[in-house]
Amino acid sequence: MDVSTTTRAAGRPPLRTFRELPSRPWFLVPPLRIVSDPGAAVLTMYTFQTREAYETLRRDGVLVGDSSKGADDWAGEQVFREAYAWMRRQMARRLPGPPHRGLLWLWPTATRELLRDIAKYARGEVLLTVRVARERALLSEFSDWHAVLNRYLHVPVNPGESEDEWELRWTALDDDFGARAKPYDAAPITEWPDELRVEIESSWEAIFDPATWRPKLNLQATISELRTADVVRAVRIR
Asked: What does the alpha-carbon distance between residue 87 and residue 100 come to, in Å, rounded to a whole number?
């Protein structure tokens, strides 16, 4: 995920230093009560941030995603640069406000099990519980986001369609699209023929449509910045 840069903010409430934060073993980090209502006007969400990112937020009052630094800390980010750029364009289209310079990732429909599983690999980091106005966040289905990451056609499940029926339909559509797109596999999507690029990118937009979200699957949220006023809980993971 994106590492963060800074923008100065005034009138921010203070946050504890990293060393002053309450510390919990990874399996006890998630709060006892998880609030998960993606339709609420103000969303309660969860995000894992590095010590560096947390101290930036504490010091400057705001944390802004910066994809250009992510590749230094997570080898896969270089591969996913196109997907991140596409998500930023979607945020610019779908959210109010100025251009969105970066991405910060949060869990708006988390379970304690999900947070615990992530915390296991985030020791030394901070779990933040935040409350953010719905209009600042772009929600999408986490599982279907992998179509964007891996550059394949997204085919939502139709109402009443069984898993087997959907898989047969998806396989046929994906095989057809894959055959047509194969000559351009090594090229950036921006260099694909317009009809292929529009076809695949249009299919991805369904990840934002609540009508395509399947029960019991996790949603993710992207915002451009996190403010100290958003934070309601911060726990250091050990």
From this structure: 10
Quickly tell me which residue has 């896969």 as its tokens.
76
Q: What's the one-letter identity of residue 218? A: N
The domain locations on the chain are: 3-142+215-237, 152-209
CATH architecture of 3-142+215-237: Alpha-Beta Barrel (3.20)
| Helices first, then strands: H and E counts in the chain | 7, 10
DSSP state string for 123-173: TTSEEEEEEEEGGG-EEEEHHHHHHHHTT----PPPTT--HHHHHHHHHHH
For residue 215, give every residue at least 6 positions away whose Cβ sits within 8 Å of its Cβ, in sequence order, or none: none
* Nearest-angstrom CA–CA distance, 17 and 182: 51
Task: Name residue 195's beta-bridge partners.
Answer: none
**With the C-alpha atoms ordered 205, 208, 213, 216, is the resulting torsion angle positive or negative?**
positive
Q: Which two tokens stand for residue 130?
A: 């935040």
Tens digit of each residue's pLDDT (9 = 90 or more) over 105-119: 999 999 999 999 999
pTM of the model: 0.87
